[in-house]
Amino acid sequence: MTIITATDLSKRFKRARKDPGFKGALKHLVKPVFKEFTAVDSVDFSIEEGESVAYVGPNGAGKSTTVKLLTGILVPTSGEVTVCGIHPFENRQENARNIGVVFGQRTQLWWDIPVIESLRMLGDIYSVPTDQFKRTFDELVDVLELTPLLNVPARQLSLGQRMRCDLAASLMHDPKILYLDEPTIGLDVSVKARFREFIKYMHKERGLTAMLTSHDIGDIQELCPRMIMIDKGQIIYDGAFAEVTRRFGWEQKVLVTLSDDTPAAASAISVSLPAHASAAQDSPTALTVRFDSRLSTSGEIIRDLATSLPIADISIEETSAESIIRNLYEGSLSFSESTNG
Questions:
Q1: Looking at the whole model, is its pTM more than 0.90?
Q2: What is the mean pLDDT of each run of 10 residues along the chain (341 residues)?
Q3: 141 and 89 in a common domain
Q4: Boundary-marking domain end, from 218, 245, 272
């Protein structure tokens, strides 16, 4: 069952254009000039009930604007968006009952009152029946290990503790969809692991649909089989996350330690390497060779190196998912280029 649909969805804003200084401000006050800016440009996607989807892209790509359109905070300039069969901006209250939101940099807990009071108030705000509230409360307190934190004001919690409490707060009304906006930013490794395990638990036990925006590749790898990438307001990829690493994981490195100082090693080996491989001198005794694994095997590259240089040690390093995503963000890789070898 499709739970979220965006069809030809666009959002445009007007930005003021004014010259610097007092004169520019005065001129803008008398005769303002605006330039139209497109944040989301004819976006199409759908998400099925129970899916976990990463919605990623570089800063300014249109991620936050899309999420605000899905939550009903913003009204589309054109196109259509539906969440659980309703238009979020036309039915904000009904939409709010279907969704939960966790922001890594903001909290929905009341700052000066104990956590348990915040959770009770949220139950009242959403008119959660008493028996349902108790079941949900008991489950979340148990799974998230919140008992020692319930009587602590939110302002006294550590970041990791607050995030666990915010997760509980976002799920007290038993929403169908959970939006996660940079949820693990600033968390240490152990807290991140617990957070990810909880999301997996909710996905398995409740069939929770999750939409994650994050720059943490670990979050994406652990939680989201599917990835939608947006850049300059347009979707450039929608598919399996594993497919991205398969398509772009062809660049490999051979790290070479030389037994003798060989300052000109990179130049010496360049004539022996295939055209698609390149060597860089890191130090008189260290060399890095990059090559396309679709065109040559690591064994062939090592053979060429061994016949030309005094090698003490050698290791192979494959391209990480993080570096692939970074290169896609920076434009040095493109989904439009051919990646079949």
A1: no
A2: 95 82 75 84 95 92 92 94 95 93 85 95 94 94 92 92 92 94 83 87 89 89 93 92 85 88 84 86 89 87 87 86 83 65 41
A3: yes
A4: 245
